[in-house]
Amino acid sequence: MITSTTNKQVKYVSSLVKKARARREEDLFVAEGLRMCQEIPPERLAALYLSESVSRTPEGRELAGRTSRVEVVSDEVFRALSDTQSPQGILALVRQYHYTLEDAARTSRDGGGPALIMVLERLQDPGNLGTILRAGEGAGVTGVLMDRETADIYNPKVIRSTMGSILRVPFCYTEDLHRDLAALKEKGVTLFAAHLEGKRSYDQEDYTGDTAFLIGNEANGLSDGTARLADTYIRIPMEGAVESLNAAVASAVLMFEAARQRRR
Asked: Does this model's pTM top 0.85?
């Protein structure tokens, strides 16, 4: 059992929690909590860390049986490892996913049903990013496309916010967002930009075909260059003095309107 916060393994895990560069170099990310760790496919589970108290529970023993690399640490050390204020005593190192643009942006021309793609530009808040993945899975999103200025999807705060959707929703960072949006348009995907200059309400458009929603930075919205690529600007009508919704809430409204139309 590991009882010191100066242990090499503890320092290694801490670097993965805190540093995006370490996560990229090791090709791993950190997931915490019983439910999240239960959902990790066995082939993705690189290592499991259990607090001493959790290691004695039926849940801890069941999880420990899923991988050959299990480390038990004292409860005090686990609190130092964890990125949460009230840790559950279960932490996993998970092998990262590597989707291609084709995985995250499949269209009806590639076979299957119509696309429902979330395109995120310069989104900075990890909670927003994670919530978009979680809500997206619920709404039937087929993929998420992000520019390089968007937050690290493997940030522990993003992972927690996804509530497991990180394990199931295809996603991809693009080196050239404008190029890839143009390619989507060539494949018949209609690009809808959530924009304050939108003239039509979001519920007046048809999202039953191949569809992508463009969502911009929390403070500044979409860049002018990206917004110009949209086929249509849409808006979410507001009552009262509220001008707009945050990125995650606006995304959820749009995604579930698309889901509603497709259920019809």
From this structure: yes
